[in-house]
Amino acid sequence: MARPSRPLLSVPRIAEAALALVDAGGDFTMAALADSLGVRPSSLYNHLAGREEIVEAMRTLVLEQGAKELGSEAVRGPEEAVRLILRSYREAFARHPRIIPLVTSYTVSAPAVMRWYEELADQLTVLGIARDRLLDVITVLDSLVLGAALDLAAPDEVWDRRSTRSALLAAAIAASPPGRERADRAFELGLDLVLGGLVRLATTASAGSSRT
Amino acid sequence: MARPSRPLLSVPRIAEAALALVDAGGDFTMAALADSLGVRPSSLYNHLAGREEIVEAMRTLVLEQGAKELGSEAVRGPEEAVRLILRSYREAFARHPRIIPLVTSYTVSAPAVMRWYEELADQLTVLGIARDRLLDVITVLDSLVLGAALDLAAPDEVWDRRSTRSALLAAAIAASPPGRERADRAFELGLDLVLGGLVRLATTASAGSSRT
DNA sequence: ACCTGAACACCGTTCAAGT
DNA sequence: ACCTGAACACCGTTCAAGT
After folding, report:
1. Whole-number average pLDDT of chain B
2. Quick check: A175 and B135 CB within 8 A?
3. What pLDDT is attached to residue A71?
């Protein structure tokens, strides 16, 4: 059939199909991806340079979905705003937890991702975080969210109860709800702990610099 | 030459050689690994079931190195103890940051890893964390450390200064030290924020439950 | 401009043969 | 028990040919 009158493929269509494969099976191959699009593997190279660019397109797709919800809610203040930003970022990954391992070693430059960090920087400044501390704080929040997202990709039983000889740890594992519920509760606790610390950091820093 | 009088290979030797390849190049292939051991690829299968088991052996190797330093220092109290545990875990990965992306999808059962969580559970209990909160807290700390470790595997320039239109974010990126120094400073800040929160959590919880 | 089909080098893994 | 060499199916990628 050679060239169709209208293109069968596009970068977003390819990324969506790849995401569906990863959601279902944890990974994708060029052959399976082409198959699911009703096309030959070599056709994909008319739209992207290769597998790596497909992964990049998937990440952009996921984060753009998350960014949509960002401005939609009324917010009571900067602390609440930071909470919402962090939650929405984690939830974007929570919808497709299995791409996380594919996406971890990368350079951030996609506009959709950058906007997320810009909003975060703004709200942290309103909260009172000093300029020279800003990127350290962003890095901490990034670590927490990425680690929490990673936790979502983990198996339901993160810790094997039978492989410990500690009664204390075994009991804690047994008492905790499984999988997603534990992950969600823990993330909210993490937000409480870190944001509590941030508010105090902002307060003490501004008290110290009030004579400037 | 067929079978040698003494085995040329062993699981630890294979894991070490694979780790050297990953440290140098970010990944390994069975062919390159066999080559670096002076052996044919098929020989590896006499010692492990396949590539996946090699990755597992590498993780165990890295975490055992980190666990060695664990009990060696005198400690002033449980908060300091928790700090040391978290630091040593992150530092184990910091020595081989490039394995982190290979190792992120989990099932914790290796004894070396379990001992780390046992010690953490003990010290958190001494600190005053309630039993029913224990696994949530461990999950938060796990997220922070894993996220911070992931940050170590990232390129020197995590954020591309030129791809943002926010003057605030651009200035923060420009002002921050590059690569490892930013990552280290941010991790220490993360420890301060979370542990501060944990101490307050322990205090308020024990105050609330004092009438039990 | 965009899909195809054949061909490429390379990948992880299996297994009978050898000592 | 442990290394070898040949063979396997599969992988991502290239490119001349077709419209």
Report:
1. 89
2. yes
3. 67
Q: With left for phi above 0 and alpha for psi between -120 and 50, is residue B140 left, alpha or beta?
A: alpha
Residue A1, CA: closest nucleotide via C1'? C3
Domain B59-211 sits in which CATH superfamily?
Tetracycline Repressor, domain 2 (1.10.357.10)
Query: Is B147 in Cβ contact with A143 (below 8 Å)?
Result: yes
Cα distances (angstroms) measured from residue B98 to each of A14, A105, B16, B66, B180: 29, 9, 14, 16, 14
Q: Give nearest nucleotide to B2 (CA–C1').
A: D3
Q: For residue B93, which of B136, B134, B142, B53 has the smallest C-alpha distance?
A: B142
What number of CA atoms fall less than 13 Å from residue A139's CA on the CB side? 33
B87 confidence band (pLDDT: 50, 70, 90) = very high
State which residues of chain A have pLDDT below 50.
210-212
Measured in angstroms, the CA of B10 and the nearest CA of chain A are apart by 24
Q: Evaluate whether A110 touches B112 at the Cβ level (below 8 Å).
A: no
Q: Assign 3-class secondary structure to chain A.
A: CCCCCCCCCCHHHHHHHHHHHHHHHCCCCHHHHHHHCCCCHHHHHHCCCCHHHHHHHHHHHHHHHHHHCHHHCCCCCHHHHHHHHHHHHHHHHHCCHHHHHHHCCCCECCHHHHHHHHHHHHHHHHHCCCHHHHHHHHHHHHHHHHHHHHHHHCCCCCECHHHCCCHHHHHHHHHCCCHHHHHHHHHHHHHHHHHHHHHHHHHHHHHHCCCC
CA distance A71 to A90: 16
For residue A18 the two structure tokens come to: 């790849």
Residue A34: predicted pLDDT: 98
